[in-house]
Design brief:
It comes from Populus euphratica (Euphrates poplar). By secondary structure, the chain is an alpha/beta fold. Among the domains are: 8-51 and 290-381, Hexokinase, domain 1 (3-Layer(aba) Sandwich), CATH 3.40.367.20; 91-229 and 465-486, ATPase, nucleotide binding domain (Nucleotidyltransferase, domain 5, 2-Layer Sandwich). It is built from 15 helices and 15 strands.
């Protein structure tokens, strides 16, 4: 397939289907049938061809879309949302802080104790709690009363028997990973529910206000220091460990990115003043689109049959939610055009039956008899017998902020007079951490696009940015600190 010859999703599809073909290839009686299989895979590979020149076109398109999204509301498919986070953890934070991570039908509460030195987390306690099914469609008061009650029990359990601390209000970072329009660091209106929630009276309401009211009703003395999403939490955790961290990417079931932008570059908020001169911008890059992206017929069909056609196009091409289904569609076409798998299995027509972890297991099966591939095909699909896409938008971020060697969005490529800074990108998500081939392809593509500049760019895996990062940001914005420096 070559280094960056095939896009991530379909590169995986080609590999998995080729492996599947090998499993049954010994039983193919007709060379004509096998040629049909090869033809399907060849067509797929050609549709995904991504030479370095094309990848750089995607990089440029991302940088331009970022600029447009910063210039005006609705000016780009990238929302480029202001987070009002204008400084990040420095490592000097001291004290005990809490986080509430609500991003699905489970939520977590965390407590961390910071020692005042970078990467010095003295202790960490976490509790996961499922949300009862009836609360997903109940009222906002019922939901937050349940959360506040759980949080209170957690606080009392963790603080029992510990040394009494100075009299002060406990502080909480609230990670709320649902569509929110923020108007300040501590305020945001819920735009719509996702992930199975349907609490009608909460849409259009301030989520922090609702949470704090529940905390008061529970009798828990706690202040919500800020409202963030999981990507911003990942950036905060990355920055806590490494001061050169300027961006964060999540590649898991879904995908998103955020980065540190100059405040004067956010044109849609003229006169925006921050103490640091910077602000973290939540890109919502799952909706990115460019005509230079290698979109195949399988991508088009998946999008048109989805509940949100023409939306989240980039996410549908690279994230864990969709990769397995792209492969299923390729195998289904092979089955329809050739009977090398025998009669067409009805399971091949079931959307999302082939999940990405199974795809990863197939792709990484190096056994002589490809036993894992055969097992998955048989058990999951009842059948006998993608890789440069995330890298290009990531380089687009580096280009926008002048960290790709070009000097920024208006600069020329590979300027020799640009002194390269060390650049760290915090990265999180099971698709990146657990899928070895996916990770290797992404690194390969970064090296191809950036050339010599790649030696200055480091991808650092973080763990639990949505939780720990929220608590770290609570420490950064503590009412007991001045300009981000803890005064305790």
């Amino acid at each position: 397939m070559g280094k960056v010859a095939v896009g991530v999703a379909v590169g995986v599809a080609v590999a998995a289907c080729a492996v599947a073909g090998v499993v049954v290839g010994r039983r193919v009686g007709s060379r004509r049938k096998w040629k049909r299989v090869v033809s399907v895979l060849k067509e797929l590979e050609e549709a995904c061809e991504t030479p370095v020149g094309r990848l750089r076109q995607v990089v440029d398109a991302m940088a331009v879309e970022m600029h447009a999204g910063l210039a005006s509301e609705g000016g780009s498919k990238l929302k480029m949302l202001l987070t009002f986070v204008d400084h990040l953890p420095t490592g000097s934070e001291i004290g005990t802080y809490y986080a509430l991570d609500l991003g699905g039908t489970n939520f977590r509460v965390l407590r961390i104790q910071l020692g005042g030195r970078r990467s010095s987390i003295l202790s960490q306690d976490v509790e996961r709690q499922p949300i009862p099914q009836h609360l997903l469609t109940s009222t906002s008061e019922d939901l937050f009363d349940f959360i506040a009650s759980t949080l209170k029990q957690f606080v009392e359990k963790e603080e029992s028997g510990s040394e009494p601390s100075p009299v002060r209000t406990r502080e909480l970072g609230f990670t709320f990973s649902f569509p929110v329009k923020q108007s300040s660091l501590r305020s945001g209106i819920l735009i719509k529910w996702t992930k199975g929630f349907a609490i009608e009276d909460m849409v259009g309401k301030e989520v922090v206000t609702l949470l704090e009211a529940a905390l008061v009703r529970s009798g828990l003395d706690m202040r919500v220091a800020l409202l963030v999403n999981d990507t911003v939490g990942t950036l905060a955790l990355g920055r806590y460990h490494d001061a050169d961290t300027v961006a964060a990417v999540i590649i898991g079931t879904g995908t998103n990115a955020c980065y540190l932008e100059r405040a004067d570059a956010i044109i849609k908020c003229q006169g925006l003043l921050t103490s640091s001169g910077y602000m973290v911008v939540n890109m919502e890059w799952g909706n990115f689109w460019s005509s230079h992206l290698p979109r195949t017929s399988y991508d088009i069909d998946l999008d048109s049959e989805s509940p949100n056609p023409n939306d989240q196009g980039f996410e549908k091409m690279i994230s864990g939610m969709y990769l397995g289904d792209i492969v299923r569609r390729v195998i289904l076409r092979i089955s329809l055009e050739s009977d090398i798998f025998g009669p067409v299995s009805s399971r091949l027509s079931i959307p999302f039956i082939l999940q990405t972890p199974l795809l990863a297991a197939m792709h990484e099966d190096h056994s002589p008899e490809l036993k894992e591939v055969a097992k998955i095909l048989k058990e999951t699909l009842e059948v006998d017998g993608l890789h440069a896409r995330p890298a290009t938008p990531l380089v687009g971020i580096l280009k926008k902020i002048g960290r790709d060697g070009s000097g920024g969005i208006t600069g020329g490529r590979n300027r020799s007079d640009v002194k390269m800074k060390r650049t760290v990108v915090a990265i999180e998500g099971g698709l990146y951490t657990s899928y070895t081939m996916f990770r290797e392809y992404l690194h390969e593509a970064l090296n191809e696009i950036l050339g010599d500049v790649a030696q200055h760019v480091s991808l650092q895996v973080t763990e639990d940015g949505s939780g720990i990062g929220g608590a770290l940001l609570a420490a950064s914005y503590s009412s007991y600190s001045v300009d981000g420096v803890n005064m305790l």
